[in-house]
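hey so u asked for the seq, here:
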Amino acid sequence: MAAAQAKSPLSQPSAMGCGCGLLGTTAVGCLFFGVFLAAGCAMGYFMVIGPWLKMQKAANWKSTPCVIDECELGVHQGEDSDTYSIDVAYSYEFNGQEFTAERYSFFDMNSNSKSWRKEVVDELKPGTNAVCFVNPDDPTEAVIHRGWTPDWPWSFFPIPFFLVGSIGVLGVAYNFVTGGSLISSTIPRDGILNRLTMPTGGDMESAQEGEARTFSSGQISSWSESDYDDDDVEEARGPVTLESESAPLAAAIFLLIFGLIWNSIVSVFVAQRIPEWMQFNFGFMDLFLTPFILVGIGTILGALHQFLASFNPVPILTLSRQWIPLGSDAKLSWQFRGSPRSIRTLKITLEGREEARYRRGTNTSTDTNVFFTEVLHETSDPTEIAEGNDLRIPIPTDSMHSFDGGNNKVIWRLKFHGEIPFWPDVNADFPIRVMPHE
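ran it, structure tokens below
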């Protein structure tokens, strides 16, 4: 009876605790990505949708002669560079009444594009006769140029903010609806463990022995370190649920934040070059900016790749023992959180790797050597992909156990690779612990 009571907290985690954690994660995620979405929507309206709607409305406005009263190139000084505007005033007669207006175009944001604005100012000299378009329903509203200006590439500026915000909010919402399948670390305690630890009729000599065996095998850890020390021999010998080193959503958020900061800095210099590019004038500065632009684009694409990968089914691996001695083996079982139907090929590989870190002058370098690798399982069978039991994990005798000496490490891990056509693959590394010979 005591064994059954001790096992209950392990096999039945608090639903309330998980729910509160998921709700908090969802709230923070919605707030974080909501800022980008709100910024993208606001900029999209004022920079794209609003001017476009006015252009469509002005298509039916009346063409009316006007006289330019004032027109000059407005210079607005900034900390990094100056921006320019067309400051114009003109008068016109409509339905027998005199009116004045000051709008050149609906896309009237200031920018550092000086050349085309100077051409307009040179053309619209004071006293010049021109043509404006007047709103017949409100004659006080008029415009000289009712189409897009050469600054139209700025209309793409809100798109990254909108995409990042909308995709992020949808992803967080999907994660909440599916119970945290994207970023939750909750691991099913049943299923695999029951199959690993269920005693057969021949093995169960008594109810008391079976009850004790169930308690022992129910000792499960939600982590796995690829290291060995003397305290490991005191740990329970039951199965361990391995924790993946991969975190696609966290990587996506990191790359997104890095990319936004990087591209924000680079965009200052790019904005200064846009007027020259529009006139097909290229120079050394453009060649210098090219690698920085490519890094920015690659970072955003990497964030998108990792974000898509976060929707992949999550492999859950359970090893039959906490640590594996050299020359011994363990049994591996797996299943997925999420549907694995998109996976076409599954490959599980055992890898042993040595890392050595050293200093050379003021630089710190790390050399890596993979001294052991073996493909343990490879299949294209959907049934075998979705779930597996009792896969033997053999550890070679003439090798090195897990070790962490600070600058020198020996790391053993299971590499889990699922190939998905036209989508980021499932890639997850699971550290395991290997100890010296029994």
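The chain has three domains: 19-59+155-184, 64-145, 191-246+313-435. The longest strand covers residues 363-379.
lmk if thats what u needed
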